[in-house]
Amino acid sequence: MSWTDDAAQPRRVREALGAAAGRFTFSATPRLDAELLMAHALGVSRERLLLRHLDDPAPHAFAALVERRADQEPVAYITGSRAFWTIDLAVGPGALVPRADSETLIEAAVDHFGARMPARILDLGTGPGTLLLAALDQWPAASGLGVDRSTEALAMAQGNAVRLGSATRAVFRIGDWAAGIDERFDLVLANPPYIGTGEPLPPEVRGWEPAGALFAGADGLDDYRRIVPDLPRLLAPGGAAVLEIGASQEAAVSALLRQAGLEVNVRHDLAGHPRALIAT
Ligand SMILES: C[S@@+](CC[C@H](N)C(=O)[O-])C[C@H]1O[C@@H](n2cnc3c(N)ncnc32)[C@H](O)[C@@H]1O
């Protein structure tokens, strides 16, 4: 069935949203998904969609977007963008879709630095530039380095830096974690892969997002084991490293950080799960 009941009496945006959300039963946010796709089809913000367009005829372009989402493609890959912290990032297949949970790292860093400002920031595994570009938006005088082993992700990061007006303050470089980096930083951010290879994942993640951004050995800790020993030499005096962790990894990653001689604090996400470790 098409999104218009017939040519004379087109389906309204309001009804099309309800019908689309009803097809996204696999999603934790079916209505939000439908609204983001409709806003994209109409070329308006979601806020404007809800205020002004609910009684408009549904655009024909919406139907194809709904089919893609029904195939469990992430909304951000369909619309080509994702809001994160104070910025909008262009994203596509080849880079992890930024997660709201990862904003916990920026919150933790903001609280840690308070009125001080980190001047130099390192983002290990930057993907589409997510954490570095959010931090540079937070601290307009700061500059930083984003490292990733994915050339596709780095191309998106560079494009995002240009679009966000941060290109003069952000350098993106291909690399294997901190190998070859001999500078010290006030803030080191890292959201490495941390899913165990056998762990169950929803099809919209396992089927669409890059495996190299998700999996880190049998217990999901392989990349922390490689990153953590380098943190002491990467941190400037008074500096902090903020690492994202999986909900069950607080004890294991804290132990690695303490073995490296660092003090550890934890920060929880909005769902109450331990999400970020702050190491000083
Ligand atoms: C979970 S994603 C995080 C992306 C982004 N920082 C975010 O928070 O949304 C992990 C990132 O680490 C990168 N990565 C994986 N192994 C790496 C390695 N050995 N060296 C550098 N980057 C790596 C992946 O390509 C991916 O972009």
From TrEMBL:
Residue intervals of the Methyltransferase domain: 120-191
Entry's Gene Ontology molecular function annotations: nucleic acid binding; peptide chain release factor N(5)-glutamine methyltransferase activity
Keyword list, A-Z: Methyltransferase, S-adenosyl-L-methionine, Transferase
Annotated binding of S-adenosyl-L-methionine, by residue: 125-129, 148, 177, 191
Residue sites binding substrate per the record: 191-194
GO biological process, one term: methylation
Record-annotated Release factor glutamine methyltransferase N-terminal domain positions: 15-80
Gene3D superfamilies documented for this protein: DNA helicase RuvA subunit, C-terminal domain (1.10.8.10), Vaccinia Virus protein VP39 (3.40.50.150)
Pfam families assigned: Methyltransf_31, PrmC_N
Reaction equation(s) it catalyzes: L-glutaminyl-[peptide chain release factor] + S-adenosyl-L-methionine = N(5)-methyl-L-glutaminyl-[peptide chain release factor] + S-adenosyl-L-homocysteine + H(+)
The keyword Transport belongs to this UniProt entry's keyword annotation: no
EC number of this enzyme: 2.1.1.297
Enzyme kind, highest EC tier: transferase
Recorded family membership: Belongs to the protein N5-glutamine methyltransferase family. PrmC subfamily.
Physiological role: Methylates the class 1 translation termination release factors RF1/PrfA and RF2/PrfB on the glutamine residue of the universally conserved GGQ motif.
Protein name (database record): Release factor glutamine methyltransferase
Record organism: Sphingomonas aracearum
Highest classification ranks of the organism: Bacteria, Pseudomonadati, Pseudomonadota, Alphaproteobacteria, Sphingomonadales
